[in-house]
Amino acid sequence: MNQLFQGAITFYEEDYNNEKSFYEGLQENKPHTLFITCVDSRIDPNRLTRSKPGELYVIRNIGNLIPPFKNGENDIQDFLATNSSIEYSIKKLKVSNIIVCGHSNCGACTSVYKPEMLEEMPYVKKWLELLQPTIERVKGLHPESEHKRIWLTELQNIQQQIHNLLSYPFVEEKFNRGELHIYGWYYNILSGQILNYNFINHEFKPIVGNNPLGL
User: Fold this and answer.
1) Fewest beta carbons less than 10 Å away: which of 117, 128, 130, 142?
2) Which GO terms describe its molecular function (predicted)?
């Protein structure tokens, strides 16, 4: 913990004071991108995108899940933290991009196939029920090994969460008008490579210098 306290001191004495005018300019919250990713400690959205404070509005939860939209007052309390953050980023902050970023070695995508891992975590178990549509999609692909099943779950989960995201009318409307761009990313922790989802051919392609969109 002392390392974290020392880090806070160093940030103020060096980072902040060396770029004081930049930080003083952050009085308003004007991010251009909503970045939805996992709470996994190995994922650092700003580092992955080389972005500065003020550029990303970040939503993090176990498994980078997006609860599907439900139209009814009785449903509004379900998963309110994530729902409200999506709503705020679109309606108030007016972000122009959304990135849904999954990753390799995802504990959520592993534990759903091992119920014993969730026996003493009822809240996590309830939250991961949102992965059920993804699990059904993977079953239809008939993976021949456990390793491939988990890998496919990680990839299919990104596609499913984009589908869930577009179930929100205020997201779909802006997306259809071309005012909002949506991307699906898969970060391979071991290799450092990031794949981008192609909406046309439904494939993930590496983000590279001469073809950043993976088209």
Assistant:
1) 142
2) carbonate dehydratase activity; zinc ion binding
Binding-site entries for Zn(2+)? 38, 40, 103, 106
CB 111 within 8 A of CB 53: no
35 and 59 Cβ atoms separated by less than 8 Å: yes
Count other Cβ atoms within 10 Å, centred on residue 35.
Answer: 27
H or E element at residue 107: helix 107-111
Q: Is the dihedral of CA 140, 143, 146, 150 positive or negative?
A: negative
Annotated binding site: 38, 40, 103, 106
Give the pLDDT confidence score for residue 126 in this predicted structure. Answer: 94
pLDDT digits (tens, 9 = 90+) for 45-83: 999 999 999 999 999 999 999 999 986 554 556 789 999
Q: Which helix (H) or strand (E) holds 64?
A: none
